[in-house]
Protein backbone atom coordinates (compact mmCIF):
# COMPACT_ATOMS: atom_id res chain seq x y z
CA UNK A 1 0.00 0.00 0.00
CA UNK A 2 1.40 3.33 -1.03
CA UNK A 3 1.65 6.08 1.55
CA UNK A 4 1.00 9.62 0.38
CA UNK A 5 1.02 11.18 3.87
CA UNK A 6 4.56 12.46 3.61
CA UNK A 7 6.20 13.37 0.33
CA UNK A 8 9.77 14.54 -0.05
CA UNK A 9 10.01 18.25 -0.87
CA UNK A 10 10.51 19.15 -4.49
CA UNK A 11 14.05 20.28 -5.42
CA UNK A 12 12.58 23.43 -6.94
CA UNK A 13 10.84 24.21 -3.65
CA UNK A 14 14.09 23.95 -1.69
CA UNK A 15 15.91 26.12 -4.23
CA UNK A 16 13.19 28.78 -4.19
CA UNK A 17 13.14 28.91 -0.40
CA UNK A 18 16.93 29.18 -0.25
CA UNK A 19 16.92 32.02 -2.78
CA UNK A 20 14.16 33.81 -0.89
CA UNK A 21 16.13 33.46 2.35
CA UNK A 22 19.22 34.91 0.64
CA UNK A 23 17.10 37.85 -0.54
CA UNK A 24 16.00 38.53 3.04
CA UNK A 25 19.66 38.34 4.12
CA UNK A 26 20.48 40.96 1.49
CA UNK A 27 17.69 43.21 2.78
CA UNK A 28 18.86 42.93 6.39
CA UNK A 29 22.49 43.60 5.45
CA UNK A 30 21.43 46.62 3.38
CA UNK A 31 19.57 48.07 6.36
CA UNK A 32 22.70 47.72 8.51
CA UNK A 33 24.83 49.46 5.87
CA UNK A 34 22.17 52.15 5.57
CA UNK A 35 22.23 52.64 9.33
CA UNK A 36 25.93 52.55 10.18
CA UNK A 37 27.42 53.49 6.82
CA UNK A 38 25.14 56.42 5.99
CA UNK A 39 23.84 57.41 9.43
CA UNK A 40 20.14 56.70 8.95
CA UNK A 41 19.06 55.21 12.26
CA UNK A 42 15.75 53.30 12.10
CA UNK A 43 12.62 54.66 13.73
CA UNK A 44 9.92 52.53 15.37
CA UNK A 45 8.27 51.65 12.04
CA UNK A 46 11.59 50.63 10.50
CA UNK A 47 12.40 48.48 13.55
CA UNK A 48 9.07 46.73 13.12
CA UNK A 49 9.86 46.09 9.46
CA UNK A 50 13.18 44.51 10.45
CA UNK A 51 11.36 42.29 12.91
CA UNK A 52 8.92 41.28 10.17
CA UNK A 53 11.80 40.35 7.85
CA UNK A 54 13.34 38.27 10.64
CA UNK A 55 10.02 36.50 11.19
CA UNK A 56 9.64 35.85 7.47
CA UNK A 57 13.18 34.52 7.27
CA UNK A 58 12.49 32.21 10.22
CA UNK A 59 9.56 30.70 8.35
CA UNK A 60 11.71 30.08 5.27
CA UNK A 61 14.49 28.64 7.40
CA UNK A 62 12.04 26.17 8.94
CA UNK A 63 11.03 25.15 5.43
CA UNK A 64 14.65 24.38 4.61
CA UNK A 65 15.38 22.55 7.85
CA UNK A 66 12.19 20.53 8.31
CA UNK A 67 10.70 20.60 4.83
CA UNK A 68 7.93 22.80 3.39
CA UNK A 69 4.89 23.17 5.60
CA UNK A 70 1.72 25.32 5.48
CA UNK A 71 2.51 26.46 9.03
CA UNK A 72 5.89 27.80 7.94
CA UNK A 73 4.38 29.64 4.99
CA UNK A 74 1.69 31.03 7.30
CA UNK A 75 4.44 32.49 9.49
CA UNK A 76 6.00 34.17 6.46
CA UNK A 77 2.60 35.45 5.28
CA UNK A 78 1.86 36.93 8.71
CA UNK A 79 5.26 38.60 8.74
CA UNK A 80 4.62 40.07 5.28
CA UNK A 81 1.28 41.52 6.41
CA UNK A 82 2.91 43.06 9.50
CA UNK A 83 5.67 44.50 7.34
CA UNK A 84 3.20 45.99 4.85
CA UNK A 85 1.38 47.72 7.71
CA UNK A 86 4.65 49.04 9.17
CA UNK A 87 5.99 50.23 5.81
CA UNK A 88 2.63 51.82 5.03
CA UNK A 89 3.00 53.97 8.14
CA UNK A 90 6.02 55.55 6.46
CA UNK A 91 4.93 55.58 2.83
CA UNK A 92 1.33 56.82 3.11
CA UNK A 93 2.09 60.07 5.02
CA UNK A 94 4.67 60.97 2.37
CA UNK A 95 2.20 60.29 -0.41
CA UNK A 96 -0.45 62.38 1.31
CA UNK A 97 2.09 65.12 2.00
CA UNK A 98 3.19 65.17 -1.64
CA UNK A 99 -0.40 65.38 -2.83
CA UNK A 100 -1.16 68.17 -0.37
CA UNK A 101 1.97 70.04 -1.37
CA UNK A 102 1.09 69.76 -5.04
CA UNK A 103 -2.45 70.98 -4.38
CA UNK A 104 -1.26 73.96 -2.32
CA UNK A 105 0.53 76.41 -4.56
CA UNK A 106 3.48 78.14 -2.96
CA UNK A 107 3.42 76.05 0.23
CA UNK A 108 6.89 75.32 1.67
CA UNK A 109 8.04 71.72 1.52
CA UNK A 110 8.18 69.80 4.76
CA UNK A 111 10.88 67.17 5.12
CA UNK A 112 9.69 64.06 6.91
CA UNK A 113 12.13 61.26 7.56
CA UNK A 114 15.00 60.39 5.29
CA UNK A 115 14.82 61.73 1.73
CA UNK A 116 17.76 59.58 0.62
CA UNK A 117 16.87 57.15 -2.14
CA UNK A 118 18.17 53.79 -3.24
CA UNK A 119 17.89 53.32 -7.01
CA UNK A 120 15.31 56.08 -7.17
CA UNK A 121 13.04 54.96 -4.33
CA UNK A 122 13.08 55.57 -0.60
CA UNK A 123 13.92 52.64 1.71
CA UNK A 124 10.37 52.42 3.05
CA UNK A 125 9.02 52.09 -0.49
CA UNK A 126 11.51 49.30 -1.23
CA UNK A 127 10.48 47.60 2.00
CA UNK A 128 6.80 47.80 1.08
CA UNK A 129 7.55 46.30 -2.33
CA UNK A 130 9.59 43.53 -0.71
CA UNK A 131 6.77 42.50 1.59
CA UNK A 132 4.33 42.54 -1.33
CA UNK A 133 6.67 40.21 -3.23
CA UNK A 134 6.75 37.94 -0.16
CA UNK A 135 2.96 37.71 -0.26
CA UNK A 136 2.99 36.70 -3.92
CA UNK A 137 5.86 34.29 -3.30
CA UNK A 138 4.10 32.50 -0.43
CA UNK A 139 0.91 32.22 -2.47
CA UNK A 140 2.83 30.61 -5.32
CA UNK A 141 4.77 28.28 -3.02
CA UNK A 142 1.62 27.13 -1.24
CA UNK A 143 0.34 25.96 -4.61
CA UNK A 144 3.66 24.31 -5.44
CA UNK A 145 3.88 22.57 -2.06
CA UNK A 146 0.16 21.96 -1.69
CA UNK A 147 0.72 18.31 -0.66
CA UNK A 148 3.40 19.09 1.91
CA UNK A 149 2.65 18.18 5.51
CA UNK A 150 4.06 19.18 8.87
CA UNK A 151 7.17 17.25 9.80
CA UNK A 152 9.03 17.64 13.09
CA UNK A 153 12.05 15.63 11.93
CA UNK A 154 14.98 17.70 10.62
CA UNK A 155 16.18 16.84 7.14
CA UNK A 156 19.64 16.89 5.64
CA UNK A 157 20.46 20.02 3.68
CA UNK A 158 22.87 20.67 0.84
CA UNK A 159 25.74 23.12 0.76
CA UNK A 160 23.77 25.91 -0.92
CA UNK A 161 20.89 25.53 1.53
CA UNK A 162 23.26 25.47 4.50
CA UNK A 163 24.98 28.60 3.19
CA UNK A 164 21.70 30.51 3.03
CA UNK A 165 20.77 29.35 6.53
CA UNK A 166 24.09 30.44 8.05
CA UNK A 167 23.99 33.79 6.25
CA UNK A 168 20.53 34.40 7.66
CA UNK A 169 21.79 33.51 11.13
CA UNK A 170 24.57 36.10 10.96
CA UNK A 171 22.30 38.72 9.39
CA UNK A 172 19.74 38.16 12.15
CA UNK A 173 22.48 38.34 14.77
CA UNK A 174 23.77 41.62 13.35
CA UNK A 175 20.28 43.09 13.26
CA UNK A 176 19.65 42.05 16.86
CA UNK A 177 22.95 43.56 18.02
CA UNK A 178 22.23 46.81 16.16
CA UNK A 179 18.81 47.05 17.79
CA UNK A 180 20.33 46.39 21.20
CA UNK A 181 22.97 49.07 20.68
CA UNK A 182 20.33 51.62 19.74
CA UNK A 183 17.62 50.78 22.25
CA UNK A 184 19.35 49.04 25.14
CA UNK A 185 16.70 47.68 27.48
CA UNK A 186 14.30 50.61 27.22
CA UNK A 187 12.28 52.39 24.55
CA UNK A 188 14.20 53.02 21.34
CA UNK A 189 15.25 56.67 20.93
CA UNK A 190 14.12 58.70 17.97
CA UNK A 191 16.45 58.77 14.94
CA UNK A 192 19.28 61.23 15.45
CA UNK A 193 19.24 60.97 19.27
CA UNK A 194 22.13 58.54 19.52
CA UNK A 195 22.56 54.95 20.63
CA UNK A 196 21.97 53.81 24.18
CA UNK A 197 24.87 51.35 24.37
CA UNK A 198 27.46 53.04 22.15
CA UNK A 199 30.16 55.43 23.44
CA UNK A 200 29.94 58.96 22.13
CA UNK A 201 33.05 58.60 19.97
CA UNK A 202 31.59 55.52 18.25
CA UNK A 203 28.20 57.01 17.49
CA UNK A 204 27.36 57.06 13.75
CA UNK A 205 26.97 60.54 12.35
CA UNK A 206 23.20 61.08 12.01
CA UNK A 207 22.07 62.04 8.55
CA UNK A 208 18.62 63.26 9.58
CA UNK A 209 20.05 66.65 10.46
CA UNK A 210 20.82 67.18 6.77
CA UNK A 211 17.19 66.75 5.69
CA UNK A 212 15.32 68.88 8.18
CA UNK A 213 13.55 71.72 6.48
CA UNK A 214 15.15 75.02 7.38
CA UNK A 215 12.74 77.70 8.58
CA UNK A 216 11.95 80.18 5.91
CA UNK A 217 12.60 83.86 6.67
CA UNK A 218 9.48 85.64 7.84
CA UNK A 219 7.88 87.79 5.21
CA UNK A 220 8.21 91.47 5.91
CA UNK A 221 4.90 93.13 6.69
CA UNK A 222 3.88 96.70 6.01
CA UNK A 223 4.32 97.61 9.68
CA UNK A 224 7.93 96.34 9.67
CA UNK A 225 8.98 98.30 6.57
CA UNK A 226 10.65 101.63 7.18
CA UNK A 227 8.50 104.57 6.27
Structure description:
The structure is a single chain. This protein has 227 residues and is mostly helical. The chain has one domain (11-210). Helices cover 58% and strands 0% of the residues. Helix 2 packs antiparallel against helix 3 (70-103). The radius of gyration is 23 Å and the shape is globular.
Q: Please, what is the oligomeric state?
A: single chain
* Largest sheet report: none
Kindly give the count of domains: 1
Structural class: mainly alpha
Distance between the termini: 105 Å
Annotate the secondary structure layout:
Blueprint: H1 11-37, H2 44-66, H3 70-103, H4 123-144, H5 159-183
Helix pairs in contact: 1-2, 1-5, 2-3, 2-4, 2-5, 3-4
Amino acid sequence: MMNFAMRPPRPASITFNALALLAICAVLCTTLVWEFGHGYAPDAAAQLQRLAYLMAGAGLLLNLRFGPSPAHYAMTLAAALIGIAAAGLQVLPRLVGSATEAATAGAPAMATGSPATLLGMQPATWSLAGFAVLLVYCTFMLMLDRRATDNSMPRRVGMFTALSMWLFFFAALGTTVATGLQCGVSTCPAPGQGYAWLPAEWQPTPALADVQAEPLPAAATTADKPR
